[in-house]
Design a protein that fits this description.
The protein is α+β, with helices and mostly antiparallel strands. It has two domains: 1-30; 33-161, no CATH class. The protein is built from four helices and nine strands, in the order ααβαβαβββββββ. The strands form two sheets. Strands 1, 5, 6, 8 and 9 form a five-stranded mixed beta sheet that branches. Strand 8 (146-152) and strand 9 (155-161) form a beta hairpin.
């Protein structure tokens, strides 16, 4: 092989390797988990774990660019959750919250992006068990932007209620 061909092949291999490596590196950046927002929400829930606060305005937590927030329990598969919420989970392939120790809060934004945060069930706060008298729902929208908090069996838990 001529040295010019060897150089061209070497350059081509280097370009392919750099492209592949860059693509792999980007995949971690496209993760929909928002750890900064997760810390903020966990801190808020921990703050209200033992007080009398009964609802949190999610506009004050998430900002004004969201359109829907949904709770994904630890046993809810991606397919079931997408059907139940009418939303697609881009960049997420886990089963439920990846662990029975977490609930996910999915934030769907007006620009058609989404992020999720994981809320530790025992250490922070669990989802409120279904109570039909409360008109609980899986998701909330900006027309009723509240995450509700209530004691159940001595522990404070969170949930959404259909528009009031």
């Amino acid at each position: 092989m001529k040295s010019e061909n060897k150089s061209s092949v070497a350059i081509l291999i280097a370009v392919v390797l750099l492209s592949t490596t860059a693509g792999l590196g980007c995949s971690s950046k496209t993760s929909p988990r928002d750890e900064q927002l997760e810390r903020k929400i966990i801190d808020i829930l921990l703050t209200h774990k033992s007080d009398d606060v009964s609802k949190i305005d999610m506009n004050k937590v998430v900002g004004s660019e969201w359109r829907k927030i949904c709770i994904q329990g630890p046993y809810a598969t991606k397919d079931w959750f997408e059907r139940a919420t009418g939303e697609k989970l881009h960049g997420y392939s886990g089963l439920g919250s990846d662990s029975e120790e977490f609930n996910n809060l999915w934030i769907f934004y007006k620009n058609d992006t989404s992020k999720f945060v994981q809320i530790p069930r025992g250490a922070v706060m669990d989802r409120f068990a279904e109570d039909l008298t409360l008109k609980q729902t899986l998701c909330t929208t900006t027309s009723n932007p509240f995450l509700y908090l209530k004691r159940q069996n001595g522990l404070k838990k969170f949930f959404f209620i259909e528009g009031e």
